[in-house]
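User: I've been trying to design a sequence by hand for this structure and keep getting stuck. Would you show me what you'd pick, starting by listing the structure so we're on the same page?

Assistant: Good idea, let's start from the same input. This is the structure you sent:
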């Protein structure tokens, strides 16, 4: 986990240097805060537009899918924050596998909950179908009269 974070930090630092050099080449001397303002702002708005288009398309089919994506994203940040906190406080081992196993826990429990909802819907369909059939049978036999 430590190696992965150091690798990602190195990539971010290299990208940071590329942006600083690019802005300097066009004559802009940006402070670190100004650089963050523009770069994160531009990345964020581009990401927002792609996400908005994708979520509008997904929402046609399932709001549950959007809820899953949002929850998974928050959990992804949460598990890595826990792993980083463990490294900073020396209270546990910072391991990538811990984060992955935690996310698998969510996915498995999510699938179990989907199975329960599916079973509930199936039973509802079966029982409402039986009720409709009984009403039809009683109506044909003259036992059921509606007013």
């Amino acid at each position: 986990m430590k190696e992965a974070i150091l690798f990602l930090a190195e990539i971010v630092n290299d990208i940071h240097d590329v942006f600083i050099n690019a802005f300097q080449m066009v004559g802009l001397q940006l402070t670190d805060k100004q650089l963050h303002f523009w770069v994160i702002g531009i990345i964020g708005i581009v990401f927002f537009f792609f996400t908005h288009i994708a979520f509008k398309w997904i929402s046609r089919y399932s709001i549950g899918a959007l809820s899953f994506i949002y929850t998974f994203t928050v959990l992804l940040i949460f598990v890595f924050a826990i792993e980083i906190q463990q490294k900073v406080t020396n209270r546990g081992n910072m391991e990538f596998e811990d984060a992955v196993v935690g996310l698998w826990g969510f996915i498995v429990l999510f699938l179990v909950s989907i199975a329960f909802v599916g079973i509930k819907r199936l039973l509802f369909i079966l029982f409402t179908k039986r009720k409709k059939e009984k009403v039809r049978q009683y109506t044909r036999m003259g036992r059921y009269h509606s007013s």
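That's my pick for every position. To get oriented when you compare it with your attempt: The chain has a mean pLDDT of 84. The chain has four helices and no strands.
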